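[audit] Reproducing an earlier prediction to check determinism. Same input, same settings, fresh worker. If the tokens differ from the archived copy the diff job will pick it up downstream; this log only records the rerun itself.
[audit] input (348 residues):
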Amino acid sequence: MTKHIIVDGSNIATEGRSVPSLAQLHEAVTAFIKEYPTAKITVVVDATFGHRIAKKEVAEFNKAIEHNELVAPPAGAIGRGDAFILAIAEKAKATVLSNDSFQEFHGKYKWLFDEGRLIGGKPVPHVGWVFVGRVPARGETSRKAVRTGKVVVKDHSPSPEARKPMPVPKTPPPGAREKMINPVMPYLGFVEKHPVGSTVHAVVDGFAANGMTVKIGDISGYVPIRNMSAPPPRSARERFQMGDEMDLVIVSYTPSRRSVDLAVPGVVEVKKPAPAKKAPAKKAAPAKKAPAKKAAPAPKKPEPAKKAPAKKAAPAKKAAPALKKPEPAKKAPAKKAAPAKKAPARKT
């Protein structure tokens, strides 16, 4: 092993995890320095490292970058910074601390197979980090890189099988129905009396791979490792034993499984639900007085009927003058004329 070590920070921080942890990387580097106190250490992380760690670690990561405690490759580096790591190691003739085999670079950096140029490391329960020399694993990518003598770019295009539609399962997968942790009635009563953020007294009841189970009276709860301390311990047995009694804070409830997640006080920031605000009682609007109806004005006395002006009597028509009496017929000289009958007078 050389005196200069290039740490593949992204690889070591993700060992045994799905996302990188700055705390785990710090723990591994500290353990390596204790084991090799005279070695020079250069920690390299990829360009996406700061976006994949926990939010609470971002501020510490930015400070480490500013003080050159961590080195990030330039944008667009091949292989998530692997090319940058190997270029530094070749120039400094340094050893690489990584669990990666760098198969796409086997044709260019043949010194990876030299003894002492590659070291691996893993955290071992109850022991801590253990570091050993290793040889890169070979595969199809490695053989292609050695054959061409160039860096092989991995093909990430999906295979023909992956392009096919997903088959519809005829039966539900095993474990599809979640096992209920607590009986329904005791669970509902517990939830009603203990809101999120309240403190309860619990007794350690058992241990699991990523935490421990506790008893709170008749209710079972679970404390994940990440809720035990910061940074979290390697296992729950490091901090607790069967039968230990302690006060824990309720972090969340999962009604679908009737489970209770808890944490050691002060480790997890629990936001207590805000109490429901009582709606202020609306003041009854004062009853509007109906406007007094104005008394209908007294009916006016009917005006005396105006007497129609008396029509002047039409002037009496003058009576037509009486017809003159016909003159008596003259007597014929020979015969005596019969006496003429008097004509009746006409009425006017």
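[audit] rerun output stored. Observation attached for the diff report: The helical segments are 9-14, 22-35, 49-52, 58-66, 82-92, 140-148, 160-163, 184-193.
[audit] end
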